[in-house]
Specification:
Oligomer: single chain
Helix content: 25-40%
Shape: globular
Structural class: alpha/beta
Length: about 400
Amino acid sequence: MAALKPHLAEDGQTTELEEQYFECRSHSDGLGRMDDDPLCPTPEAVIDQSHAGLMQDVYTREVIREELEGAQIHPSYKGRNVVLRVDRPVTGPAWNPFAEVETTSLLSWTAKTGRPSFSLPAGAPVMGGSCPGATAGQSTVDDRVRRQAARLLLPVIGKRQVNLVEAICEYCYATGGSYATGSTQFHQTVRYAWVRRAITIDPRGRPTDNPRESSFVSVMIDGIERADFKLEGEPSQWRGKKFFRIHGSGDFFHPRYLMAWKAVCDHFHPRRNEHSIVFWAPTRIWAMGDKWIQFVSEVNKGDTNLVLRPSAYHVNQHGPDIREPGWASPTTVFHHDAVGEAEGREFDWNCKAYAVEKGPSCRGAVGSDARGNPTKVGCRTCWVHPHLRVNYTLH
């Protein structure tokens, strides 16, 4: 299963074929020619492997969606936590089975970054994903549609074409590994089905045109207020502060959805809430063109606690430099052989979560303090330094 691991995922899960390709690519002549080395995989071989993995997600999601057709999904409580309850059990496909499930947690916890998060299915809409910005960068999308989508993003990154074999979305960490299991696909598909409806109704179930007053907002606020942020484990320099990641996988699939999340973030803004939270979301919605870029600028302008970082489209290339209100600095994914040359030129801060002796950890990594001094243990750079370009090294 293809598993490039940008965005703070797990170390050592890049497939051997992918690792060979990017090792060769980093030593090529810069034009994609790899000196006819017989040990260098062809781009076609790498794409064939990644495409097979993506198609497994496509088929798994399709079966789960069919089982969910006509089902009712309601927010409920399991102990202190908010869950989403399906009115009948779902078993999933025979080739990717899981035990009968009727509930999924609203939020999740990721040990590496040490904070709660919210996740949806990753990938382009054609594969049941919530990432419209991935359309130009995944082999599951028809070539004609990919070319049309590429016209919107290429002017932003100053490139002439999307190179599919190096497009980060083709190897998205959130379509492989544990994310590809039937149970994970179930949980994410249920959340996605619930979200699409919840942003269109108010808390009483009546249709609404105002996503800021939607059921999604009220349920999400409740879920976040009930979440255990495990503040006792937060490094001393950030003690008492709360950080939340929007989209451990997935993206802002619709303007309504972004507006709803903005309302959630506003509720936890320090001007309004003594228990304030900083929200961070990596995103490729900029790849949908100027209309989306301007929409984000309008929705997220001013004093905001929502850090929206535009994610790079290719491995070993700069991120989009969007100098508009509401946007933070970009993120990149450079192969470890290319990091040294790119640091300071293409990015300002290289994530050090992988240098932690006991395993990848943001809480255990050296990070920048509130003044930007890289001397403190406990990295929250992605949240507290929106002006810094951040790189997640490809391992």
